[in-house]
């Protein structure tokens, strides 16, 4: 509950700042960074990441560049990326909780000589190769099947059949 209220307050502050800067005739860079996990194999998970950059101001931004060094080679190997929207994929074979830093975008506006900086939204922590219950079930599916079959067999052998119990219960007079 408290985190939802805090998120709402941050959103309101960002919108207020956006409206102030957008109406002042300046460049206003808004950047959103997001990542999703897809399990490829038992020991490999793909991270699909994208960074969207928008100029929400009324002035043009020049010399825009993006720097995102938060994807450590200890955790990831580069898979492939697309330059147009700057979406890319990484593969990880390391089980870890990964915290990615915000990407940094630098740009120049006509009214100022100094480079301006904007930061992407941080991504939520990625629990890479985490043991999730459904994935554990998929991992041990064959073992679970064998144990279930064996347990069923032992149950059938160990419990008396109804026909034998009915015969033993009848007494002849």
Automatic annotation (TrEMBL):
Protein known as: Uncharacterized protein
Organism listed in the record: Camellia lanceoleosa
């Amino acid at each position: 509950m408290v985190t939802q209220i805090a998120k709402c307050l941050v959103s309101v502050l960002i919108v207020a700042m956006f409206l102030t800067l957008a109406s002042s005739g300046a460049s206003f860079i808004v950047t959103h960074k997001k990542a999703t996990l897809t399990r490829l194999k038992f020991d490999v998970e793909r991270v699909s990441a994208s960074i969207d950059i928008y100029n929400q101001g009324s002035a043009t931004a020049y010399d825009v560049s993006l720097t995102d060094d938060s994807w450590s080679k200890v955790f990831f190997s580069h898979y492939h990326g697309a330059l147009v929207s700057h979406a890319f994929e990484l593969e990880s074979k390391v089980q870890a909780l990964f915290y990615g830093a915000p990407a940094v975008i630098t740009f120049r506006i006509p009214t100022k000589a100094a480079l301006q900086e904007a930061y992407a939204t941080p991504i939520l922590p990625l629990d890479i190769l985490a043991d999730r219950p459904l994935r554990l079930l998929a991992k041990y599916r064959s073992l679970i099947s064998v144990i279930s079959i064996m347990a069923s067999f032992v149950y059938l052998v160990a419990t008396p059949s109804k026909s034998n119990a009915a015969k033993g219960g009848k007494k002849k007079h």
